[in-house]
Amino acid sequence: MKEISEHFTYEELTYSRIAVENALGNVPGETELKALKVLATNTLEPLREVLGAPIAVTSGFRSPEVNTSRCPVSVESIA
After folding, report:
1. pTM: predicted TM-score of the whole model, two decimal places
2. Number of neighbouring beta carbons within 10 Å of residue 12
3. How distant is the alpha carbon of residue 51 from its chain centre?
4. For residues 20 and 51, what is the distance between their CA atoms, to the nearest angstrom?
């Protein structure tokens, strides 16, 4: 697994169920990858330390393709 920071991986921060289920691209470019590293290092790691527990990231990065998709999401599928 490719690490973004001590406790956060590339896979964890870029996973998208919508992308997987609909075969959409969700790969960050160089600029977005740098932003993910800053987010993990300056925000997520300190927050994890303060809380003293792991943090579940559900949306670290969404590609424009994923963000603009019109994939229906029902309440039942996210419950």
Report:
1. 0.79
2. 17
3. 20
4. 31
